[in-house]
Design a protein that fits this description.
Arc Repressor Mutant, subunit A; 2 domains; nine-stranded antiparallel sheet; five-stranded antiparallel sheet; about 25% strand
């Protein structure tokens, strides 16, 4: 296990094998060809830990393909200050010295750990993905200058080697944080030339997360309703070929359409339908540029456009050019995304 990241034991004493076989792009669509990768295989799961070591931080994209339910215990001697964001699904996690938590999709925290002793429960047939950012001293010192009221308790915990979370319970990501995470994944997928853009997005994401603790972003919704709005955020875009409708989403949220509309707009400053349309067109742009085996007419049908002219019109209204313009020159997608930062 010379190339392992940590020691792992499962509730059924499975044998785990470490290697550096890259993760192949599959149904989950996450593919990071420029990253280093360490993989962990067993009969019940495949885990892939992509990592990018930068001057101020080390970034990990962790993928877990789970075939059977397991409770695992992970241990490692190294200390870290880690930003963690649950990109897909939700998972039970109990870190040594800290309160156990059910971490929902779209939630985040910043944690200091003098060592890692983590109990995790994985469910059969689920796919999990996390974005973890380990902050180096230079990054922590910069944050201390800008956000002393949040960072001082964390740095004091580091001095005394005591586990500490910035948030007692994981906080729900804002829409801006979610978009930054998606942008980070996009630029990591675009190659090493875009790593400086990744650096800017990571710095923005961490600063935004710390500022959240200071109460800059307030809402009248309690934690339960806030997390539910994040579930609605993802549920609304499960099917990009057909909008699920407010009544269906309101039933899921156990409320009425008027209340759901108000709470979602308060949380994300956008309506559910606007969110669905924007996400669908963003997906269209990604498919046009990166899925060149699909014809543009095929992409339109996949996304629910029965009329190609309507797809071209909607695409051009958002991106100023028709799909064929981007199909012929990938660099243009990056200029648009840079303008959006």
């Amino acid at each position: 296990m010379d190339n392992s990241f940590f020691d792992i034991k499962s509730s059924k004493n499975d044998t785990h094998y470490w290697n550096n076989i890259p993760y192949k792009k599959g149904k989950n669509g996450i593919f990071l060809p420029e990253s280093g990768v360490i993989s962990l295989h067993s009969g019940w799961s495949d885990m892939h830990f992509h990592f990018f070591d930068r001057a101020k931080y080390t970034l990990y994209i962790n993928l877990y393909d789970v075939r059977d339910s397991r409770e695992t215990r992970v241990q490692s001697a190294g200390s870290t200050v880690e930003y963690t964001m649950m990109l897909t699904n939700q998972v039970y996690n109990h870190l040594g010295g800290l309160q156990p938590a059910e971490i929902p999709q779209g939630a985040f925290n910043i944690t200091y750990l003098p060592f890692v002793d983590s109990l995790v429960r994985f469910k059969k047939g689920q796919f999990y993905c996390t974005l973890d950012i380990h902050l180096k001293d230079v990054f922590l010192n910069e944050l201390m200058i800008d956000f002393p009221s949040v960072m001082e308790p964390l740095l004091n915990a580091m001095e005394h080697k005591t586990p500490k979370r910035v948030f007692d319970l994981h906080a729900p990501c804002t829409l801006f944080m979610t978009d930054l995470a998606r942008s980070i994944l996009h630029y990591l997928n675009s190659g090493p030339a875009y790593l400086p853009v990744v650096d800017k997005n990571v710095e923005g994401l961490i600063a935004h997360a710390v500022a959240y603790k200071m109460g800059t972003y307030s809402s009248s919704l309690d934690d339960k309703r806030t997390l539910l709005m994040h579930e609605i955020y993802y549920k609304a875009i499960e099917n990009l070929s057909k909008f699920p409708g407010i009544d269906e989403l309101a039933q899921f949220a156990q409320t009425n359409p008027t209340t759901l509309h108000r709470e979602f707009k308060e949380m994300f400053n956008i309506t559910i339908k606007q969110h669905w349309i924007a996400y669908r067109l963003d997906k269209a742009l990604q498919m046009v540029v990166h899925e060149r085996d699909k014809r543009i007419s095929e992409i339109a049908l996949i996304l629910g456009y029965t009329c190609l002219a309507n797809f071209n019109r909607a695409f051009k209204a958002k991106y100023k050019h028709p799909p064929g313009f981007f199909r012929n020159g990938q660099s243009d997608i990056d200029s648009i995304r840079l303008d959006d930062q």
